[in-house]
Design goal:
Blueprint lengths: L2 E7 L2 E13 L6 H4 L10 H5 L10 H4 L5 E4 L11 H8 L4 E4 L4 H10 L2 E4 L1 H6 L5 E5 L4 E4 L4 E4 L5 H9 L2 H9 L5
Parallel strand pairs: 2-3, 3-4, 4-5
Antiparallel strand pairs: 1-2, 2-6, 6-7, 7-8
């Protein structure tokens, strides 16, 4: 299941809605678990995707599907500052990560490459593996469709949503220079 919707209201893109199936991980998932250092001899996103989360779940890359969502505990993306980690996640088709908290450099790298991330204490504790969730990025609402529950997350500012929609900071900058984004 893969859904990213942008709802238009007049001249303003009002809400980015993300919906998908969830994979669960615990606290302190570091960048070595996300993409092991032995695979950092390439920066090819497709190659990195083949090994995403390999040290946490050796078969994860074969199970994950485009549009899936990760949910984790606190301090997701800790460890080294490599941007390969969010690139591997995004290239594997994962459209968003929900966690109690993120390591600061992972947080920034995620937006820079266009990966949506959401901080939510309740959601990260209550969402189960395989649950289907719908996330309203603008309003910070996470709906667990499977369980019929709703949680709050820190809303993503509109500019950061724009970075995600455009594929990251580099793609946004290219479009900005060409006059394709405001």
């Amino acid at each position: 299941m893969f859904i990213i919707m942008v709802i238009l209201f007049g001249d303003r893109e009002a809400a980015m809605i993300v919906k998908g199936r969830v994979w669960r991980f615990g606290d302190d998932v570091d960048t070595d678990a996300i993409i092991p250092a032995r695979y950092l001899n390439t920066s090819d996103p497709a190659e990195l995707a083949k090994h995403v989360m390999e040290d946490a779940d050796k078969n994860f890359a074969t199970k994950v599907r485009k549009g899936d969502i990760l949910s984790a505990g606190k301090n997701f993306g800790c460890g080294s500052s490599r941007e390969h980690a969010p690139i591997a996640i995004k290239a594997a088709g994962i459209q968003a990560v929900i966690a109690k908290s993120f390591a600061r450099i992972f947080y920034r790298n995620s937006f820079n490459i266009g990966l949506a991330i959401f901080e939510s204490m309740d959601a990260s504790e209550k969402i189960g593996e395989g649950d289907v969730v719908e996330i309203d990025a603008d309003n910070g609402i996470i709906k667990n469709i499977t369980k019929g529950e709703q949680y709050t997350a820190k809303p993503i500012p509109l500019f950061m949503q724009e970075l995600i929609r455009e594929g990251g900071l580099i793609e946004w900058t290219k479009k900005k220079v060409r006059g394709e984004v405001a």
